């Protein structure tokens, strides 16, 4: 299965890394590890998480208040956002249309 990341996700991850580095150096590595573990989980079984806003699904990063918002396509895992759980809910909803040039 291929993973396609929305281009704005890098900024979201960088924001989290910067925050955790400022809070306590070293924790940012744990943040990245938790995101990577969540993606590995998705690759094993992308449908383990139920749809919350069809066709979108989410998986929560361990120990951190972040969710990975994604959707499953044919042999593709579309990752639309790495979202902090208490900031700007739903901001990612228009990303797919923009991403695909619609």
Could you list some keywords that capture this structure?
102 residues, alpha+beta, YaeB-like fold, 5-stranded mixed beta sheet, 5 strands, globular
Question: Would you give an account of this structure?
Answer:
With 102 residues, this protein is α+β, with helices and mostly antiparallel strands. It has a single domain, classed as RelE-like (YaeB-like fold, 2-Layer Sandwich). It has three helices and five strands; from the N terminus they run βααββββα. It has helices at residues 9-23, 27-44, 95-99; strands at residues 2-5, 51-53, 56-60, 66-73, 76-84. A five-stranded mixed β-sheet has the order 1-5-4-3-2. Helix 1 runs antiparallel to helix 2 (27-44). It is globular and about 40 Å long. The protein starts with a strand and ends with a helix. 17% of the residues are buried. The mean pLDDT is 90.
Give a short overview.
With 102 residues, the protein is α+β, with helices and mostly antiparallel strands. 37% of the residues lie in helices and 28% in strands.
Cα Rg:
13 Å
- Note poorly predicted spans: none
Q: Give the end-to-end Cα distance, rounded to a whole number of Å.
A: 24 Å
What CATH calls the topology is: YaeB-like fold
CATH architecture: 2-Layer Sandwich
- Biggest sheet: strand arrangement: 1-5-4-3-2
Number of helices: 3
Count all strands and give the number: 5
The structural domain count equals 1
Strand content: 25-35%
Mean pLDDT: 90
Percent in helix:
25-40%
The profile of the biggest β sheet is: 5 strands, mixed
Please write the string of helix (H) and strand (E) elements.
EHHEEEEH
What shape does the CA trace take? globular
State the name of the first-level CATH class.
Alpha Beta
């Amino acid at each position: 299965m291929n993973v396609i990341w929305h281009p704005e996700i890098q900024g979201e991850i960088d924001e989290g890394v910067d925050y955790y580095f400022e809070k306590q150096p070293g924790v940012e590595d744990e943040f990245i590890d938790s995101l990577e573990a969540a993606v590995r989980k998705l690759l094993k079984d992308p449908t383990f998480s139920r749809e919350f806003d069809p066709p979108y699904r989410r998986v929560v990063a361990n120990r951190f208040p972040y969710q990975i918002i994604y959707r499953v396509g044919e042999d593709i895992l579309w990752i639309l956002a790495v979202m902090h759980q208490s900031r700007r809910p739903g901001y990612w909803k228009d990303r797919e249309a923009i991403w695909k040039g619609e």
